[in-house]
Amino acid sequence: MPLISQDQIQAHNAALQRHADTDYEYLSEQLARRYVDIDTITQQVAAFGVAIPSWGVGTGGTRFARFPGMGEPRHVFDKLQDCAVIQQLARATPTVSLHIPWDTCSDWSELRQMASSYGLAFDAMNSNTFSDQKDQPHSYQFGSLTHAEAATRAQAVEHNIACIEIGQKLGSKALTVWIGDGSNFPGQQHFRRAFDRYLESSSAIYAALPHNWRMFLEHKICEPAFYSTVIQDWGSSFMAASALGPKAQCLVDLGHHAPNVNIEMIVARLIAGGKLAGFHFNDSKYGDDDLDAGSVAPYRLFLVFNELVSAAHENVAGFKPAYMLDQSHNVTDPIESLMTSAAQVQRSYAQALLVDRAELDAAQDANDALMATRALKRAFETNVTPILQRVRASAGGAIDPVGAYRASGYRQLAGKNRPAVAGGSGGIV
Ligand code: RM4
Ligand code: MN
Ligand code: MN
To answer: Are the C-beta atoms of residues 297 and 283 closer than 8 Å to each other?
Structure first.
């Protein structure tokens, strides 16, 4: 099945180009009044990328039901092709993050070749010890890296090491470890002992990291365990990452916090401690962790980027966050959601680049709360769409990715070419 043809993209752009150029000119003038050079911002945004989660291109689901979409990817090669289409149109997602064993295949070098033929590379590897695999001797129902039985812990450690080995074949440089371990009843688990077991198991994984790899520890307040989780928040994550060593850092999945938690503040603390691994971007409203990035709280996303841009601006040592999306798409075409979300993340970055840092610093030092917050709002309220359009079009992508995608008929073609498979490799259920 072919990707979308460049001619089709160009034809779609032709109808939008004149307006896009006019809007860019106008924004350029507005920014010049603030002594901001639009082309510098455009270049910075063009250099920004966020990874696609392979599991995001399949339709997700809830624990109540899953409603499969048309032409869902059947295996990792199909998933990679969908990622290629996302990158082709939206030009913000040059890498893919794999989940093992969901993405297991028999020929990793073929996969790597296919990726590079699409201009894609691989970001962090993700292990899965939150569900049981066929024929595995020990169950993870009561935990994995922190399980009370040593044999189960050893099995989970081994799986993580296998993920590192696959990642090495693919050119990845990081392992993300998220565990579902925790408890559903007060008293079910001894909190301190479970954490000690986590440290012991994670050190065995850490010891297997190649010298140029990092290990990303991902915290999550709840689910699937609903009373307590072992790595429930950034505090536990920070403790673990500090105990493990410099290659271990804390990954912030935006949806993994209690409602109203000040995530940008957590990000600032992790930066200060040299422990910010990076992100899983998505949005959330209640207990969920999988809404589309920026769909509910775009200002929060901007405030997170404000911390990131500020750290880059101040050249904070060792600051090198990895950017990934992590979403479950239940009611949309995943390709459309992922393109839109990548652009949302890019948008927040562009807006954060527009913050007048000198003005903000001065207002903070003068205790001028109103001017300080206004400096942020002015950047956030700037419509940076023309910059995003320019970045995409100059790289050969679509000015309007969703419009071009719908016009291409890619999904309908996928529907014909990818007959549904029983128990197929959909998204997260
Ligand atoms: C978890 C967490 C992990 C992801 C799984 C599928 O909630 O966000 O990052 O790998 O879901
Ligand atoms: Mn995540
Ligand atoms: Mn999650």
So the answer is: yes
From CA 411, how far away is CA 350, in angstroms rounded?
A: 30
C-alpha 310, offset from chain centre: 20
pLDDT digits (tens, 9 = 90+) for 30-64: 999 999 999 999 999 999 999 999 999 999 998 89
* Count of other CB atoms within 10 angstroms of residue 71: 22
Q: How far apart are alpha carbons 292 and 282 in whole angstroms?
A: 5
Pocket probe mutation, ligand 1, options 131, 218, 251, max atoms within 8 Å of Cβ: 218
Q: C-alpha distances in angstroms, 309 versus 31, 122, 238, 304, 387?
A: 18, 24, 22, 9, 17
Residue of 22, 27, 76, 21 lying closest to 53 (CA atoms): 76
φ, ψ of residue 29 to 5 degrees: the values are -65, -45
**Percentage, residues of the chain above pLDDT 70:** 98
Q: Which of 98, 163, 178 to mutate to test the pocket of ligand 1 (most atoms within 8 A of CB)?
A: 178
